[in-house]
Design goal:
The complex is a heterodimer. Chain A is mostly helical. In chain A, 68% of the residues lie in helices and 0% in strands. By secondary structure, chain B is an all-alpha fold. The chains are: A mainly alpha, B mainly alpha.
Chain lengths: 333, 203
Amino acid sequence: MTYDILITGLIIIAQILAVVVPVLISVAFLVYAERKVLALIQLRRGPNIVGPFGILQSFADALKLITKENIIPSGSNKIVFILAPIITMVLSLAGWAVIPFAPGWVVSDINVGIMYLFAVSSLGVYGIIMAGWASNSQYPFLGALRSAAQMVSYEVSIGFVIITVLLCVGSLNLSKIVLAQQTVWFAIPLLPMFIIFFISALAETNRLPFDLPEDESTLVAGFFTEYSSASFVLFFLGEYASMILMSSMTVILFLGGWLPPFDVYPLNVVPGVIWFTVKVIFILFLFIWVRGTFPRYRYDQLMRLGWKVFLPFSLFWVVATSGFLVYFDMLPN
Amino acid sequence: MILYSLTFYLFSSVAVLSALMVISAKNPVHSVLFLILSFVNASGLFVLLGAEFLAMILVVVYVGAVAVLFLFVVMMLDINFVKLREGFLQYLPFGALLGIVLVIELGILFLTDRSSNIYNNQTPLQPIVNEVENTKMIGQILYTEYFYLFQICGIILLVAMIGSITLTLRDKGGVKRQNIDSQNTVDASTAIEKKKVKIGEGI
């Protein structure tokens, strides 16, 4: 009896490690890839000293940051100050529990998988608000207030995009969402929704051109101005891990998850996890490309885009999609 | 079975303790953070009951949206809690009355004979394994049996929304607004205006 529980517990821990460790390693390489791609966009060389082609640069940076002194401001609210980066990091890893990498390759195949992902990504704002408030300093507080309004606004349109996809699937289970795309990836019939989702994902992860919570040209470093050393590393890792999480969500909702583009011989031999990774890397490249190309939005423009453009448009598409599905009797059971 | 009981007691005790902390914490921001912890644990209890859709909705709506705005307001307002606590004795009878009514109601609920209840045969603390997902079950009952109530809820929310917009929408003079259409349609003929200025007069 107790032996069984022990075995189950060990299996669960092994599964969690099998997901979290690759995610953390891919975060390190994503940071390297971002610096390299940005360097190429700006006709520079980028990191090229540590290891072959500078590939170990992120590990060197992490080592440097962690060995530095961790400074906690005397005026800060200490418990919340320390808790904030931990919450950011934990939440950006928690979402991976329901991501299906290939048929059956999922830690927890729950019925409400997409709702769970949505919930976890909407909780991400707490790390930022808590950090901004606990720092007891003006710049972080401004960053926190900006992020609170921004992330809540863009969640609304993300919610409507998810509803549109769910109308076409008929289930909240992520594996079923992927399997529903066997005939055609949702990115093709729902292309406008795909674009809205991608832009909202940029806003939700506080990436450029919507990185107003950290906005270094006006707010020093935004919500993590007062953070140093290991707690800064946690924020940094959290941001990139949630970037990869949002990319995986995009891939699952719109680009057919682990499915090959066409179900023909040379393509369908490739294992699903490879397809999944390739698609996630493509979306991540888009994230970096956007960062290298677009200037930062002004705050009122950001709010206008969220509430006056995306919200009515995605609401219209929910109505249009459901109308279409009902009229042509294509509703899934 | 032991694992279910253990997780149930974990979630419920943390929920109750954090609810206590909500009303006893000195710092209002800490109170809101404990409220969030309480919400999350309540959603954990929903998962244990097999109501995973409700659990996720609780997190998305209350924790992800309502509590964020709540926290936002509490952080922005400079509330003097020492001053607020001065009225403690004044509000005590009213608060105590509310508490007593709630306890009595809960007591009635537990003591009444629930043999007529259709859900009676289900054992609590076990996720109900069912072929139909509970998202579908809620949808099937909400949009058929409770359709009118559901619509009335929608109308109430709409009224509340319009009300709050009218309360906050003020047309202050002197606010410069960006008109994107007019900015985009500017060309050389509309952007530059030629004027002949008389010497010594100005425009």
